[in-house]
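Margin note from the TA: students keep mixing up input and output lines. Inputs are the sequences; the output is the structure of the whole complex. Example:
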Amino acid sequence: MVYSADNSKLLVNDNEILASSAQISLGTSLSPKYLMTQRHTQDQVPNNGIGGKLSFNYHITGKDYFKEFITGQGEIPFSGSQQLSGNFGGLYFSSGFLTSYSVNFSPNSPASASATVDFFDYARGVFSPVNQPAPSDTQILNMTHATIEGEFATGAVDNFIAGTYNYSSEVMPVYLMNETIPSDISFGAKTVNINFEVDNPTGYLPISGDAAKISVNLKNSSSTLLENFTCSGVINNRNLASSAGDYIKQTVNITQNNLSATEIYVGSVIDDAGNSGSVGVGTTGSEQGLPS
Amino acid sequence: MATVFYDKAAVEVTHNGVSEQLLATDCSLSFSNAQAPLYAIGSKGTLGQFPAGARQGDLSFSFLTTITGTYFGVNGNIINSLASGVKAAASNTSEVSGVEIKFAGVSGSGYLNSYGVGVQSNSVSSSSCGFTFFGSGTQLPMSGRLDDFAGQTIQTGKLATGVVHGRYTNLDNFATSITAGDSAANVFGADYSISFNHNPVYKVGQEFPMTCLYTNAQETLGITEDVFQSGLAFDPAASNLTLTLSGLGGSPAGTSMGIGLSGVKQVSTAMSAGMDDIVRTQKNLTAVY
């Protein structure tokens, strides 16, 4: 039986994703087992656990669900809650982790993103086709309505032409003896970088990089701010390229390695007279100012 | 609703404060946006149609080839002068601006993307051109609504001798000579065309381009004559030629319309025969800028 894309719904944490494409791949880690004096073998044995990847592309319709995993995944106190379950056409897994995420910013185009979720378990279930109409009145954000803000330690940028926002995270399973499913997950370094084509050709790039920040605000047609992608770090790469018939393209790459949005800060204090303001834990990440 | 008869729908082109109404024989204008359907897996049907590009306009018209004066140092009409100026802009900045075009109450800033002139024996020459409207910044590609041309339409009587005609246009300098056969061609007509490529640069957060760059142009001249030789060279020598067009009665010295072609190479030759006609040959010359 052959099914069409219409029949394979994608759910992540039970949220239906309006994905334009998706794929789930499963893999084992087998290697041939040779005995001494043998050059041939029929035996292949596992040398690591089983696992897979769920990758999908989708259009951004508002506040992006997956972005919170950038700052939250693997961070205290969310380490236990920032897991992703996935269900693609009936094949499902219960515990996965966002390992890469990318948003594309192209002029006059719908804002689109892609994500990859790694899981270290079997995919269970069977393919079960669905038949349902597409939702109506879907809002898809367009980059025409976006605004870009940049802060540069040196130089000035007048125009931001196109770019991408990328996130990657190291996620490693921890296995106990006699178990094929990891007992714990170890989170490694997380990196965000933003690559933007700008209009100020320059070759200035000191060995220590150059501090910079680019913030992309996605808005709807009513200019209401719905999502924000900010990368504040250092410019570690500049690129100047040209080809016949095209204009000169200058791109900068900003990398940010501190992604914790859970830094504790003091909002206000209770004074001696008992006048109190809120003292709380809040985010200092790029979600500030966004509607909840 | 405005019902406009064609005699009130003049085409006027303005560049750097210089305007000319062309003797357009037809004109068409289109305005489009780019809506693309988006689909999601797991559901039947489309999520809807969503913008996938900026709005853009196109305008093209045919007109009688006229010699109405000198525009920016080039004899002829304003379209010929624009084409000459763009292709000769190698030493200028690549950033270009459009020209103002008005047609039946609608106006916009357009970039010349094509221009062609045809001249045949004993025939009135006709030209054609096309413009693309990209808009700029917050400026729409075109604005206005269908209405009568605002202003005085052209008095065509003044152009009686300014219309380019095949009777008075001598194209002998394009004739093929076959020395071995000791023969030189009779030239029956010429079709000239040039296309220009522009590169509008769009940025996020803005629909219309932040700037527009002229990149290159390709020029073709097809000559109809009556000699044929199979000795088309693999790498023919480039030459510089001028297509000189004259109006009815012949243009006074120095007032003919000239179209200069630089680095011309012959790229093809052909011959064909039809009923009740001589065998006509064709050679195509190209130049690029």
